[in-house]
Specification:
Length: 434
């Protein structure tokens, strides 16, 4: 209360409807002390950990996405806007798109990450990244179309090129893609063609470091490499990509591979929106923030998710994972509620009692390799094989947004597990492919 009158609601603008932005909005939902505007250039929240399953025809796009308006439809103090912020003016507290200006008391930048080609931006024309539903559907269309063309191709060399996939990057995304494509052609599509054998699809996984899943314990990394080899994936470790053009790649050891499909799963960088912020950033463009996740010198501006560089309790950078992003979004919301409760006005600095510090709770990392095979690491706990695979299934369903999505994914997985027939093998984007 101020002078007997109700204090105006504090305007909170959240840029990005990913795990961090949505978690912050949901935490503030129902608190009439805040008027929240969530802005995203897409109308849906995307469950990115399962994006590779859309790319490999295991799931359909609606199974892993839900409209932001649908998620927040009952929250009267939260509004959703379909727009793209291109500029942030910290001095005037404005976030601007090409047509509109949004004034804020608090700003939360959770704009996510984009594919990084490590300075070789020309490769983007030939190597498809995996950051959106459009990317996943483009990969699926490219692979399935290549198999269709191989079926009617009379030239053996051209058929071999059509039936080759190169995946750049041996992290969780690359490993999961490689394993899923192997499962797709060796089990689900083994009887679908008459002139070609889908099991002869060549999958080459290229990793610059000495082992795949470099962030995992060596024992789990070795297990993953062995499983991939068992699935027929050709694993190339310790080799960098030095050249990419249409239908062809070159590795640092001089090997040349002809491939119709080239997928880039090697690197990400922060959203270009962070370049507009006056603060220190790391080489990937991630913002270096205070311990409460606010920008240095701007206590009213916060960053969360893939745009943030901050160290965890172990001194290592907090990873760009969904649980970490959710924890950041929830923490920021709690800080804003603390400010309101203590009468601390936005931008008033850090006088008085200090804000709560963000502490990352590491819930572990995991990657699925194929049917009944995965790896999981959480502290000292290390699992591989069927137990890790079950844990992977349970945790990913648990994190999905909405009952419909959980049910749809469970039914799709159950059907595919029993019948070995994923049902999302429809080719779209024919004009783009041509």
């Amino acid at each position: 209360m101020l002078g007997g009158l109700m204090e105006p609601r504090r305007r909170v603008v959240i840029i990005g409807g990913g795990f961090a932005g949505l978690a912050c909005a949901r935490e503030l939902a129902g608190d009439e002390g805040f008027a929240v505007t969530l802005i995203d250039r897409r109308n849906h929240h995307l469950f990115q950990p399962l994006l590779y399953q859309v790319a490999t025809a295991a799931l359909a796009a609606p199974d892993i996405a839900r409209t932001l308006r649908g998620v927040l439809s009952r929250e009267r103090n939260v509004g959703v806007v379909l727009d793209e912020i291109i500029e942030i003016d910290l001095s005037s507290r404005e976030a601007r798109s090409r047509e509109l200006t949004y004034t804020y008391d608090y700003l939360v930048v959770a704009a996510g990450a984009q594919t990084s080609y490590f300075g070789n931006d020309g490769w983007a024309a030939y190597a498809i990244g995996l950051k959106s539903l459009e990317d996943a559907q483009a990969i699926r269309a490219r692979v399935l179309s290549a198999l269709e063309r191989a079926e009617i191709c009379a030239d053996e060399d051209e058929r071999r090129r059509l039936m080759t996939i190169v995946i750049v990057g041996g992290g969780p995304t690359g490993v999961e893609l490689a394993g899923a494509f192997s499962d797709l052609v060796r089990r689900a599509m083994k009887s679908d063609f008459r002139r070609i054998d889908p099991a002869k699809l060549r999958i080459v996984l290229v990793e610059a470091s000495e082992r795949v899943l470099d962030g995992f314990a060596p024992r789990l990394s070795g297990y993953a490499a062995d499983q991939l080899s068992h699935l027929g994936v050709e694993v190339r470790t310790g080799r960098k990509m030095v050249g990419i053009e249409a239908g062809r790649v070159w590795l640092s050891d001089g090997e040349e591979i002809e491939a119709e499909t080239i997928i880039w799963a090697a690197g990400v960088r922060s959203s270009s929106l962070t370049e507009n912020l006056e603060c220190e950033r790391d080489r990937g463009g991630r913002v270096k923030v205070e311990r409460d996740l606010s920008l240095p010198g701007h206590p009213e501006v916060f960053a969360a998710g893939d745009v943030v560089f901050i160290e965890g309790p172990d001194g290592k950078p907090v990873p760009g994972l969904a649980p970490a992003a959710q924890q950041m979004g929830q923490h920021i919301a709690r800080v804003l509620k603390e400010d309101l409760r203590r009468g601390r006005h936005p931008g008033a600095g850090r006088r008085g009692e200090a804000r709560s510090r963000f502490t990352y709770l590491d819930k572990g990392i995991m990657a699925i390799i194929g049917k009944n095979s995965a790896v999981m690491q959480a502290g000292r706990l290390q699992l591989h094989g069927f137990p890790a695979w079950l844990a992977w299934l349970f945790i990913h369903v648990l994190f999905l947004i909405g009952f419909r999505n959980k049910l749809a994914v469970l039914l799709q997985w159950a059907y595919a597990y029993v019948m070995d027939k994923p049902g999302a093998r429809v080719i779209t984007g024919q004009k783009e492919r041509a």
